[in-house]
Amino acid sequence: MKVLGLIFGILSALGMLLALIPFPGWLNWINKPFAIIGLIISALVKSNSGMVLCGIAIILGMLRLMLGGGVF
Q1: Average pLDDT value over all residues in the chain
Q2: Fewer CB atoms inside 10 A, N or C side of the chain?
Q3: 13 half-sphere exposure, CB direction, 13 A CA radius
Q4: d(CA 47, CA 21)
Q5: Where exactly are the structural domains of the chain?
Q6: In this model, does residue 7 exceed pLDDT 70?
Q7: CA 4 → CA 8, 18, 57, 65, distances in Å?
Q8: Is pLDDT at 71 greater than 70 in this prediction?
Q9: Which residues contact 70 (CB under 8 A, 6 or more apart)?
Q10: Residue 34 in contact with residue 14, Cβ under 8 Å?
Q11: From CA 59, how far away is CA 3, in angstroms rounded?
């Protein structure tokens, strides 16, 4: 299960990096729930690396959405 949390973290971080490009910014709306699920799984199995990656993806994704006008 720790590997699953890490995989969710890596995929959400990669999705967040892809969503930093201006046109696919809508990808943050898909990536945010994916990162939250990964954060929950990582917290349940106490995978620190997965929690860090998912947390960074959530925070940077929210900042990107705020800058783009997607979240008020």
Answers
A1: 86
A2: C
A3: 15
A4: 29
A5: 2-68
A6: yes
A7: 6, 21, 16, 26
A8: no
A9: 25, 28, 29
A10: no
A11: 22
Task: Supply angle C-alpha 21, 22, 25, rounded to 5.
Answer: 85
Q: Please name the amino acid found at residue 60.
A: L
SS3 sequence, the chain?
CHHHHHHHHHHHHHHHHHHCCCHHHHHHHHHHHHHHHHHHHHHHHCCHHHHHHHHHHHHHHHHHHHHHCCCC
Structure tokens given for 9: 């973290």
**Residue pair 13/53 in contact by the 8 Å Cβ criterion:** yes
Per-residue exposure over 21-41, b if at least 16 CB sit within 10 Å of its own CB, e if not: eeeebebbeebbebbeebbeb
